[in-house]
Amino acid sequence: MSHIAIPIPPLQGKQEIKVEVTINGIKQNLFYRVELFYWEDCTNPVAHRADCISEMLAHHDPEWTVYYIGAPNDEFVPITFVKKESRNLLREAIA
Asked: From what superkingdom does this record's organism come (predicted)?
């Protein structure tokens, strides 16, 4: 599958992203969400950061799946999600 990088303006909090693409005359909508997960929100802050991410994602909306985990810093880790319906479209594209 081909990829295109689209810069997203740096905004605080959750970002809901709708990408409308037309490929070979076929129009599709893809839905993404970028969230910042703050380390201070971990219930066990001394745990390994991977465990912290796993804990935070355990209570996440099941209609969205993890698409990309960005580079963490000392405050947070950005995580990009794709809506399940969009993920199905992407899966069909490579089938």
From this structure: Bacteria
pLDDT for the residue numbered 69? 92
* Overall domain count for the chain: 1
Residue 1 counted as domain residue: no
pLDDT tens-digit readout, 65-82: 999 999 999 999 999 999
Nearest to 93 by CA among 11, 6, 24: 24
- Is residue 21 included in any domain, yes or no? yes
With a CB cutoff of 8 Å and minimum separation 6, the contacts of 76 are 36, 37, 38, 39
Within a domain: residue 7? no
For 44-72, the pLDDT digits (tens) are: 766 688 888 888 888 888 899 999 999 99
- For residue 83, give its domain range: 15-93
